[in-house]
Write a structure and sequence with these properties.
The chain is of the alpha+beta class. It is 28% helix and 19% strand. The strands form 2 sheets. Strands 1, 6, 7, 8, 9 and 10 form a 6-stranded mixed beta sheet that branches. The radius of gyration is 23 Å and the shape is globular. One of its GO terms (cellular component) is DNA-directed RNA polymerase complex.
Length: 232
């Protein structure tokens, strides 16, 4: 397994199926004699029906997943060539986290880092007081404020980090570092990001000569691709 990867524990498929029925999923009987090209929709390998607007359906599903309205481990895979949309809610899939990118900008902001640091400092202070045996007297009229909680799960619920399994990972564009996003923004503005590079640094990381400006995700760190025992 790669570093930071996790195994999906599985969730109910009923909420996903109910959503599909509300958003225009047509049964196989209704569409048996239709000449309009439709996309087949599968849930955990079972053909549930067809849909006439898969692009908007995929966008809506991903938006709901990032808002935590559907489980973060639900996988949304669209195969344009085969005209198939495959959704997975089952257990046992290997998922790994990635930063979400929109308009070539990370959705991860300083405020999220500050929230993590604040929660970490409060936990450390609480542990220090316990270790030193310091107990603050409790006033029933003025109870102490609850400890500030902001953890990894909050980043997923806030829609700045997304869990992708191996199959969905094949349908997205992942850059290695935020620097690649900056280069893409410069290239989109017809600016050469390497025009000021005087001489090549042999120890510098090789940059991808990308002409595409359609990144959808960014690695948390390039080394997270590797496993615990992997080496270069």
């Amino acid at each position: 397994l790669s570093l930071m990867s996790c195994i999906s524990v599985g969730s109910l498929s009923a909420p996903v199926i109910e959503f599909l029925e509300e958003w225009g999923l047509e049964s196989l009987e209704e569409n048996a004699h239709s000449s309009t090209p439709c996309t087949k929709v599968f849930v955990n390998g079972v053909w549930m029906g067809v849909h006439r607007d898969p692009t908007n359906l995929v966008k809506t599903l991903k938006k709901l997943r990032r808002k935590d309205d559907i489980n973060a481990e639900v996988s949304v895979v669209r195969d344009i060539r085969e005209r198939e949309l495959r959704l997975y809610t089952d257990a046992g899939r290997v998922c790994r986290p990635l930063f979400i990118v929109e308009n070539q900008q990370l959705l991860m902001q300083k405020v999220h880092i500050e929230n993590l640091n604040r929660a970490k400092e409060e936990r450390a202070e609480e542990e220090r007081k316990k270790a030193e045996g310091i107990e603050e007297p409790e006033d029933p009229d003025d109870p102490p404020p609850p400890r500030y909680e902001y953890q990894w799960e909050n980043l997923i619920k806030d829609g700045v980090i997304e869990l992708l399994d191996a199959e969905e990972e094949e349908t997205v564009m992942i850059c290695m570092t935020p620097e690649d996003l900056e280069n893409s923004r410069l290239q989109a503005a017809d600016i050469d990001p390497h025009e000021n590079d005087t001489e090549a640094d042999p120890s510098a990381r090789l940059k991808a000569p990308t002409n595409a400006h359609t990144w959808t995700h960014c690695e948390i760190h390039p080394s997270m691709i590797l496993g615990v025992c992997a080496s270069i």
